[in-house]
């Protein structure tokens, strides 16, 4: 507010300066003799206002030129500008104590306010000046007059941490419980701006440390938000309630985590009720993961916060993907370290509607996908927006053969990729595009390594027949299949998806274990079958288009890699 008022005044001065610079120069220089000469030569010019209503007296008061004020007073002590600013108000704004005293002695109205209802006392507190405040109070300034925003002089003094002015205002009867249009009290202003001594004075005089503003924020909440550690300490010592939430159901701990104030978080953790956090519908862990506050995330986990806490329905609906866990936030941010911290602490990777693994696969983050799979992420998780049974992870991971192999090695069901309702009949044009034939062969070849008997639909046969070097892939699908492959598939099926990662613990020869884990299938050999990238091929957003096609009344078929 101080900046706004000062800028307005300076603009007005600039405007007036342009209109009558000789007079203003004399006033700015404080040249009383030159001013007297002007008075004799052009007395009428001293009372001629500029377009903003300023006369020479206003300018003299603004610049604190007492001798000029004496000369210019002449019965117009309470004359106002177009914004209802008196010479006294301008002198108080600028902290010109001598001018203030002179004007008061000569009948200036101590309570005349400008159009924003800001009195001289208000402006003297907004731009703290103890001497001016004392003068105004001595001459009868009303201490509880508020501005158009409901701000009292005490609000302004507390905001600026003007301890002596606050004490003087309170002695003069200032209302401790005055509220502005946002229902903010003076103590709130002191906490919001980090003024611990002022805050303690107000509490000594009877202010309530737990009074809330219109949005439900408490003084403690505001101090935590702005990182005022000494104020937070003072408030907690004064029994401020760490479990008082805002209208948005956020606690001081939530906002301290969001703003990355670790020391304040450490203070609040032992004072914050876990039950209260559950009723808020959002855990500090969610915020720490969302904002990549890794150190605070570890601190919260060490303090026993539930790593599997889920967002309430109300909070979850704020996100298009309906995310619910802290792990999802870390994965979607690509924060591998935070994701690993959560998983090591027991985070379940399969709680969200849209599995975090699908995010990592879709974005091609191999390390993240590997981490999630290692901790039990469901490789067969499906997208709720995809009507077909084609494996979502494979659909999203086709552009990365390393990720595709990771999924298949860990039990992603490749058999579903070969179930096509069209069989040998013609396929609709929407799903028979040849845009991705460049990569279809190697993908089909890899998928066939993880299935037994598979029937290739007419579209797959067309793709494989389009290139002579893919003839061997077509033969791979034809029976009979090698007994070794069928045995491997049977053993892996009997083990089940969750126990595949334990194959290495079986009492079997190393070569057999490697065979069961597909370690003998070299990814390099697979990638060599890929021809060079051709210009004009579509980019990664083809996945989105595939999803949209499936979710907009698609056929429900499973040829997702076409």
UniProtKB/TrEMBL annotation:
<feature type="repeat" description="ANK">
    <location>
        <begin position="322"/>
        <end position="350"/>
    </location>
</feature>
<dbReference type="GO" id="GO:0016567">
    <property type="term" value="P:protein ubiquitination"/>
</dbReference>
<keyword id="KW-0732">Signal</keyword>
<feature type="repeat" description="ANK">
    <location>
        <begin position="280"/>
        <end position="312"/>
    </location>
</feature>
<dbReference type="Pfam" id="PF00023">
    <property type="entry name" value="Ank"/>
</dbReference>
<feature type="repeat" description="ANK">
    <location>
        <begin position="182"/>
        <end position="214"/>
    </location>
</feature>
<dbReference type="GO" id="GO:0035556">
    <property type="term" value="P:intracellular signal transduction"/>
</dbReference>
<protein>
    <recommendedName>
        <fullName>SOCS box domain-containing protein</fullName>
    </recommendedName>
</protein>
<feature type="repeat" description="ANK">
    <location>
        <begin position="352"/>
        <end position="384"/>
    </location>
</feature>
<dbReference type="InterPro" id="IPR001496">
    <property type="entry name" value="SOCS_box"/>
</dbReference>
<dbReference type="Pfam" id="PF07525">
    <property type="entry name" value="SOCS_box"/>
</dbReference>
<keyword id="KW-0677">Repeat</keyword>
<feature type="repeat" description="ANK">
    <location>
        <begin position="215"/>
        <end position="247"/>
    </location>
</feature>
<dbReference type="InterPro" id="IPR036036">
    <property type="entry name" value="SOCS_box-like_dom_sf"/>
</dbReference>
<comment type="pathway">
    <text>Protein modification; protein ubiquitination.</text>
</comment>
<dbReference type="Pfam" id="PF12796">
    <property type="entry name" value="Ank_2"/>
</dbReference>
<dbReference type="GO" id="GO:0006396">
    <property type="term" value="P:RNA processing"/>
</dbReference>
<feature type="repeat" description="ANK">
    <location>
        <begin position="116"/>
        <end position="148"/>
    </location>
</feature>
<dbReference type="InterPro" id="IPR002110">
    <property type="entry name" value="Ankyrin_rpt"/>
</dbReference>
<dbReference type="GO" id="GO:0004540">
    <property type="term" value="F:RNA nuclease activity"/>
</dbReference>
<feature type="signal peptide">
    <location>
        <begin position="1"/>
        <end position="20"/>
    </location>
</feature>
<dbReference type="InterPro" id="IPR036770">
    <property type="entry name" value="Ankyrin_rpt-contain_sf"/>
</dbReference>
<feature type="repeat" description="ANK">
    <location>
        <begin position="83"/>
        <end position="115"/>
    </location>
</feature>
<dbReference type="GO" id="GO:0003723">
    <property type="term" value="F:RNA binding"/>
</dbReference>
<feature type="domain" description="SOCS box">
    <location>
        <begin position="475"/>
        <end position="522"/>
    </location>
</feature>
<keyword id="KW-0040">ANK repeat</keyword>
<feature type="repeat" description="ANK">
    <location>
        <begin position="149"/>
        <end position="181"/>
    </location>
</feature>
């Amino acid at each position: 507010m101080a900046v706004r008022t000062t800028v307005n005044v300076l603009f007005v001065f600039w405007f007036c300066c342009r209109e009558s610079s000789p007079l203003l120069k004399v006033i700015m220089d404080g040249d009383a003799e030159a001013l007297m000469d002007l008075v004799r030569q052009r007395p009428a010019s001293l009372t001629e206002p500029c377009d903003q209503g300023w006369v020479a007296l206003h300018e003299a008061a603004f610049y604190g030129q007492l001798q000029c004020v004496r000369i210019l007073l002449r019965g117009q002590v309470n004359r106002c500008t177009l914004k209802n600013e008196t010479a006294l108000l301008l002198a108080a704004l600028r902290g010109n104590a001598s001018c203030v005293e002179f004007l008061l002695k000569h009948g200036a109205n101590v309570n005349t306010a400008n159009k924003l209802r800001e009195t001289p006392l208000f402006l003297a507190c907004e731009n703290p000046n103890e001497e001016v405040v004392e003068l105004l109070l001595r001459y009868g300034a009303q201490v509880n007059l508020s501005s158009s925003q409901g701000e009292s002089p005490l609000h302004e003094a507390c905001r600026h941490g003007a301890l002596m002015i606050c004490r003087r205002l309170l002695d003069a009867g200032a209302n401790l419980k005055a509220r502005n249009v946002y229902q903010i009290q003076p103590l709130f202003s002191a906490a919001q701006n980090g003024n611990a001594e002022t805050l303690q004075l107000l509490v000594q005089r009877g202010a309530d440390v737990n009074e809330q503003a219109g949005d439900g924020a408490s003084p403690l909440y505001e101090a935590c938000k702005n990182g005022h550690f000494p104020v937070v300490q003072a408030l907690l010592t004064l029994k401020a309630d760490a479990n008082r939430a805002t209208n948005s159901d956020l606690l001081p701990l939530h906002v301290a985590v969001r703003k990355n104030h670790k020391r304040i978080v450490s203070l609040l953790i032992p004072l914050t009720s876990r039950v209260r956090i559950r009723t808020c519908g959002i855990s500090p862990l969610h915020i720490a993961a969302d904002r990549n506050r890794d150190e605070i995330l570890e601190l919260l986990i060490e303090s026993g916060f539930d790593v599997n806490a889920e967002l309430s329905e109300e909070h979850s609906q704020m996100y298009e993907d309906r995310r619910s866990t802290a792990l999802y936030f870390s994965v979607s941010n690509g924060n591998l370290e935070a994701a690993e911290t959560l998983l090591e602490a027991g985070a379940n990777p399969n709680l969200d509607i849209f599995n975090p693994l699908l995010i990592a696969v879709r974005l091609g983050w191999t390390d993240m996908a590997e981490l999630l799979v290692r901790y039990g992420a469901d490789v067969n998780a499906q997208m709720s927006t995809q009507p077909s049974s084609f494996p979502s992870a494979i659909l999203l991971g086709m552009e990365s053969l390393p990720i595709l192999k990771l999924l298949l090695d860990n039990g992603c069901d490749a058999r579903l990729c070969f179930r096509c309702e069209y069989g040998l009949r013609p396929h609709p044009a929407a799903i028979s595009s040849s845009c991705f034939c460049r990569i279809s062969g190697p993908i089909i070849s890899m998928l066939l390594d993880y299935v037994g008997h598979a029937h290739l639909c007419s579209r797959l046969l067309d793709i494989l027949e389009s290139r002579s070097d893919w003839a061997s892939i077509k033969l791979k699908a034809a029976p009979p299949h090698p007994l070794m492959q069928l045995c491997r598939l049977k053993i892996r099926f009997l083990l089940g998806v969750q126990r595949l990662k334990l194959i290495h613990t079986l009492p079997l020869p190393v070569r057999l274990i490697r065979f069961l884990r597909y370690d003998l299938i070299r990814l390099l050999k697979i990638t060599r079958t890929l021809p060079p990238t051709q210009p004009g091929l579509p980019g990664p957003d083809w996945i989105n288009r595939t999803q949209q096609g499936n979710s907009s009344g698609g056929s429900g078929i499973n040829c997702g890699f076409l």
